[in-house]
Specification:
Chain A: It is found in: Cell membrane. Chain A: This is ABC transporter permease. Chain A: It is a multi-pass membrane protein. Chain A: Pfam families: BPD_transp_2. Chain A: InterPro entries: ABC_transp_permease. The complex is a heterodimer. By secondary structure, chain A is mainly alpha-helical. Chain A has one domain (40-59, 70-359): ABC transporter involved in vitamin B12 uptake, BtuC (Orthogonal Bundle). In chain A, 68% of the residues lie in helices and 2% in strands. Chain A contains 15 helices and 2 strands. In chain A, helix 5 packs parallel to helix 7 (150-169), helix 5 (99-115) packs across helix 12 and helix 14 (310-329) runs antiparallel to helix 15. The two termini of chain A are 39 Å apart. Helix content of chain B is 32%, strand content 23%. Chain B is built from 9 helices and 10 strands. Chain B has a 6-stranded mixed sheet, with helices on both faces. A 4-stranded antiparallel sheet of chain B has the order 2-1-4-5, with helices on one face. In chain B, helix 6 (154-167) runs parallel beside helix 7 (184-199). The termini of chain B are close together. The chains are: A mainly alpha, B alpha/beta. Chain A binds chain B through residues 1-2, 4-5, 8, 11-12, 18-22, 37-38, 223-224, 227-230, 232-233, 235-236, 239-240, 242-244, 246-249, 306-307, 358-359, and chain B through 75-76, 79, 85, 87, 89-96, 100-101, 104-107, 109, 118-121, 123, 139, 141-144, 147-148, 150-153, 155-156, 159, 184-189, 212, 215-216, 235-236, 239-240.
Amino acid sequence: MSGTDNFEAVVQERRTEAVAEFHEDKTLIKRFQHALHTTPALVPMIVLIASIVLFGLLIGNRFFSAGTLTLILQQVQLVGIVAAAQTLVIMTAGIDLSVGAITVLCSVIMGQFAFRYGIPVPIAILCGLALGTALGTLNGWLVAVMKLPPFIVTLGTWQIILASNFLYSANETIRSQEIEAQAPLLQFFANTFKIGADENGRGGATFTYGVIFMILLVVVLAYALRQTAWGRHVYAVGDDPDAAQLSGVNVRGTLISVYALSGLICAFAGWALIGRIGSVSPTSGAELNIQSITAVVIGGISLFGGRGSIVGALFGALIVGVFSLGLRLLGADAQWTFFFIGVLIIVAVAVDQWIRKVAA
Amino acid sequence: MAVEPLLKGRGLVKRYGKVVALDHCDFDLYPGEILAVIGDNGAGKSTLIKAVSGAVVPDEGEIFLEGRKVHFTKPTEARAAGIETVYQTLAMSPALSIADNMFMGRELRKPGIMGSVLRQLDRPRMERFAREKLTELGLMTIQNINQAVETLSGGQRQGVAVARAAAFGSKVIILDEPTAALGVKESRRVLELILDVRSRGIPIILISHNMPHVFEVADRIHVHRLGRRLCVIRPQNHTMSDAVAYMTGARVPDTEFETA
């Protein structure tokens, strides 16, 4: 062979210094950055604890009681459930603007099927859940098979579903008393159990079934995302769909399953919505899509996909809950809540960008 | 020669509209060899490789693996048949761990109910296997198998990608420009890795523009020109300038084939 290719032999002799060594940076900030990189839910957890401590110090026992803290849980249950659905979609580098609309339409379907057509309540509820799944699957099909951008798809289905909701329900509200009398199962998620209440049932920690459902849902999804192949595929598809495809992941199937599951979770949220407000109202839940995206972003889930954890979204929802109740107890103008949430969103995204630098 | 090619292509044709990317191209890979595929840009070498790895379905022609005719319509089918491709982009998910990436698309599940009903992954077994495979290929400068791939250097990523390709009982490994994005030291490491893999008896198809690298590791060089195999040369009998002259059409080779 010609002598020209000997130039690399020099390098070969010095192999002992290990070519591909991983240098651990030891400064405190770098370590912190690395810890955040491996555990993305750490930031929202710290913010959550800090905000609870802050409001606890400012407000005192009135805030630090079991009753108030569980009240926050009740107030965020819907956002928490919908944020779990939103997390799945955002994890695949998508976005689901139709979550609120699906939630409302499903609650209306459950109510109207039971009251307008006299269908047995459990079957009406199943119809609502099936419809949510079907609408989610439609979103997924448009995104995965038709290759349309998720933002556009769900912007479209959001309008379509919301309009269908008003057309079908004819703006009719089913009143709480009627539901309570004829179809209490629709208000299932409003059932409560209390811990540490006095004889009159006052005070203590109050958990609605909706809150329990939200926590169980987060636990189940966290398990699925971390411990199953499907979960790994969701991350891989969000990270780099082409790479995932070449590694043998069924990208199309994974995407459709994510949107379908998101639809199903929203349908459950629709059921929980009836429990929360008591009635079936086609005008309720309109802000859920923006609120869920807010919770997801504050929860440290990257809008670029592939990063974050479902627990982070729950923390994100709780942070919003703590701020809104805390500021209200302080007697501040409600606008301050939005003000601080806006700040938190921008900080959260800035932190996400900073964490990503660990890769460089 | 009595040795049958392990992977054989005959009369492969692929047209993209009016462009003929493959023009009745033949292709042979013998057991245990490193076959380099070189060719000018647009010569159709990537189409040839895609046809063999299932990413492209040829319009005409036949592909034989171990003497049996195969027909791939998807990369996953070629992979199931034992043809592993390491793409230039490496096809890895940066945010996931080394172990997760190695098993992407063929995860192991826990035995019993945890695996069959709850679909739980067998993390310890996957991690042990990944560690073994990396050690075998001398890549254990990587300390933590749960490290995210994005925290690895370019050479390490290439190493993990090659280890993944070599890990699953594959019959053929296709490497697309494995040293293109790497520095001098890391290229060296990857070339050693390629020789390591060959010493395990797995034949390799190496696509590269880097003549020194090609001449150093390849047993035979497939020169691709104008959509077909121009000649197959042995690096011992030719200089790099010869090879470049053949592939650019500056000179016509005297011998057309030099088999294994």
